[in-house]
Amino acid sequence: MPQDSTRFSNISVLAHKRHTRGRNNQFALWDGRGSTSMPICFKLGIMPRLPFITFEGSEGSGKSTQADRLSVRFQRCGIPYILTREPGGTPIGETIRELLQFAPHNSGMTAETELLLFAASRSQLVREVIRPALECGTCVIADRFFDSTTVYQGAARKLDRQMIERLNTFAVGDCLPDITFVLDVDAATAASRMQRARRKADRMEQQPAEFYEQVREGYREITARDPGRIVLVDGSRDADEVDNEIWKTLSSRFSILAETSNTEHRTSKH
Ligand code: TMP
User: Fold this and answer.
1) Residue nearest to atom 7 of ligand 1 (CA)
2) Cα 257 to Cα 269: distance, rounded to the nearest angstrom
3) From CA 167, how far away is CA 129, in angstroms rounded?
4) What CATH number does residue 205 fall under?
5) 212-260, pLDDT tens digit by residue?
6) How far is the CA of 48 from the centre of ligand 1 (A)?
7) Residue 119: HSE in the Cβ half-sphere, 13 Å Cα cutoff
8) Residue of minimum CA distance from atom 13 in ligand 1
9) What domain range includes position 152?
10) Which one of 16, 116, 117, 269 has the fewest CB atoms closer than 10 angstroms to its CB?
11) What span, in angstroms and rounded, lies between the C-alpha atoms of 39 and 41?
């Protein structure tokens, strides 16, 4: 993958602008300013690249909370990262998100149209944001990625699974997550958390209870199929506990994260 830092600096500007509009309409970026050595070591090829980390789970599972917490941790440690969300994360993707979730005329949307719109948002996000960020030595934290399509449109909407797999491959190419955390909660816990959120449900949140059972089952199935990449986390626990478990897993699998966070902590004390 070619280096393209000019394009990436444009992304940084965009990311910062969107970040000022708040957590629910953004992707955030920490470019490692204050971090002493990391980006240059990466560029010189003396450091492995930082991982591409995805968070998955049903509504109310706590995945966005955990993605946010990990970004705060990275920021504190001086690890350069971006935080993306799906659908969305680019101007085109955010327009698609609006169409999928909130547009007043979206109630008649077919499952096939829905599938293609999620794929369109993702293919834009990969090429405009995720791939250039990884190429520049930035860690990517993604709040949802292609496993959401496998589970929601495949396991729950029951669209053809092989076709979904091909479409996922077409949308992301070789840009695959290094690790995926699936936050697992039972439907009752998820529903009560969603009620506490106290905002109007969007189109995707107006499904019957059995839809969410199928979503949960779908996530469990993909975890069993790909245990090397996907880690199932009990999301019903306290957010601190979940956060600690996620960090423990990440720092044991990616020594570069543990080393960088230690180095940056030591550096910042002087
Ligand atoms: P969220 O960002 O609040 O989790 O909302 C995204 C919604 O879109 C959620 O209901 C899951 C759904 N979704 C799919 O059905 N397929 C997909 O590929 C993605 C990314 C999301």
Assistant:
1) 204
2) 19
3) 19
4) 3.40.50.300
5) 999 999 999 999 999 999 999 999 999 999 999 999 999 999 988 888 7
6) 31
7) 19
8) 148
9) 5-268
10) 269
11) 6
Please count the structural domains in the chain.
1
86 CA to middle of ligand 1, Å?
7
Structure tokens at 227: 């245990």
For ligand 1, atom 19: residue with the closest CA: 148
What pLDDT shows up at residue 202?
86
Residue nearest to atom 2 of ligand 1 (CA): 86
Question: Mean pLDDT, consecutive 10-residue segments, the chain of 270 residues?
Answer: 38 36 44 50 66 96 97 94 97 96 92 98 98 95 98 98 98 98 93 78 86 96 98 97 97 87 58
Residue type, 53: I
Whole-angstrom distance, CA of residue 217 vs CA of residue 197: 24
Label each residue of 112-127 as H, E or C.
Answer: HHHHHHHHHHHHHHHH
